[in-house]
Design brief:
By secondary structure, the chain is an alpha/beta fold. It is built from four helices and 28 strands.
Length: 256
C-alpha cells in the first residue's frame, strides 16, 4: 500500500506501484509511471513524462522530467527515465527529452547531489556520483562508474568516460576519456584514476597497461598515431578497446 500525504497531489492518471511514500506538497502529474518502494520527501515534483523505477529516494525541491530548456522544443511527447535505487538530492532538476532523442535517461545506483542539473536528452549511466551544483547541458553522455565533483560545467554533446574522476570546478567542452583524472584550468589529463581503479578491483597489470596506453596516446601529436602505438605495443583487452573506441568515436575531441 502506498503512503500518500493528504497534502500531496497525485493526478488520477498517474500510475503508481506499491509501497511508495509520497510526502507533503509533492506533485505528481499525469502520464507518469512510478515503480515500487520509492520515497519522495516533501515538495518533490514529478512532471509529465516521468518513468521512475524502484527504490529511489528523491529529496525536497527536486523536479523530475521538467520541460526542456531548449528553444527547439515544441511540446513533443517525450520522457525522462530514472532507474532503480538512486539518491536524488535537494533541488536537482532533470529535464525530459526533445525530438532529438526523445528521452533523458538516468541509470541505477547513482548519487546525484543537491542542485545538479541534467538537461534534455542526457544519458547518465549507473553507479555514478555527481557532486553538488554540477550542470550538464543537453545530450551529454556519462558512462558507468564516473565520479564528477561539485560545480562542474559540462558543454552540450560531451561524452564522459567510465571510471573517471573530475576535479571540482572544472569546465570543459571536449570529451573526457575513461579511467583518468581530469582537472586544472583549462581542464586536462592529470593521470589515471589510480585509487578509483584499485577500489573497483583492477589488478596492477591492467592498471599499468591503462597507464601505458595513455602515455602512448598523449605522447603523439596525432591521436591516430597514438592509437596505432597502443595496438602495436600493448596486449588487447576490453579496457584498452574501450579507450581506443572512445577516442576514435569522439565527436568533440578529447581533453589533452
Amino acid at each position: 500500500m502506498n503512503q500518500i500525504s493528504p497534502l500531496a497531489y497525485v493526478h488520477p492518471e498517474a500510475k503508481l506501484g506499491d509501497n511508495n511514500i509520497i510526502g507533503p506538497f509533492c506533485y505528481i502529474d499525469k502520464n507518469t509511471i512510478i515503480g515500487d518502494n520509492n520515497v519522495f520527501q516533501n515538495s518533490v515534483t514529478i512532471n509529465y513524462g516521468a518513468r521512475i523505477g524502484n527504490g529511489n529516494e528523491i529529496f525536497p525541491g527536486a523536479s523530475i522530467s521538467t520541460k526542456p530548456q531548449d528553444l527547439k522544443f515544441k511540446g513533443e511527447d517525450t520522457t525522462c527515465e530514472i532507474g532503480d535505487n538512486n539518491s536524488i538530492r535537494e533541488c536537482t532538476t532533470i529535464s525530459r527529452g526533445t525530438a532529438s532523442k526523445g528521452t533523458t535517461i538516468v541509470g541505477s545506483n547513482n548519487l546525484i547531489m543537491e542542485n545538479v542539473h541534467i538537461a534534455h536528452d542526457c544519458i547518465v549511466g549507473s553507479d555514478c556520483i555527481i557532486g553538488n551544483s554540477t550542470k550538464f547541458a543537453g545530450e551529454v553522455t556519462v558512462d558507468d562508474h564516473a565520479i564528477i565533483s561539485g560545480a562542474v560545467l559540462c558543454h552540450q554533446f560531451c561524452h564522459i568516460g567510465g571510471f573517471v574522476m573530475i576535479q571540482g570546478g572544472c569546465r570543459f567542452s571536449q570529451d573526457i576519456p575513461p579511467f583518468i583524472i581530469a582537472g586544472k584550468e583549462p581542464t586536462r589529463y592529470c593521470g589515471i584514476n589510480l585509487v578509483g581503479l584499485r577500489r573497483r578491483g583492477f589488478n596492477n597489470e591492467l592498471i599499468n597497461n591503462i597507464h601505458e596506453a595513455y602515455r602512448l596516446l598523449y605522447s603523439k601529436g596525432v591521436l591516430k598515431e597514438g592509437i596505432e602505438e597502443i595496438r602495436k605495443n600493448l596486449p588487447a583487452s576490453q579496457e584498452l578497446n574501450y579507450i581506443i573506441d572512445f577516442v576514435e568515436n569522439s565527436k568533440r575531441g578529447i581533453i589533452r
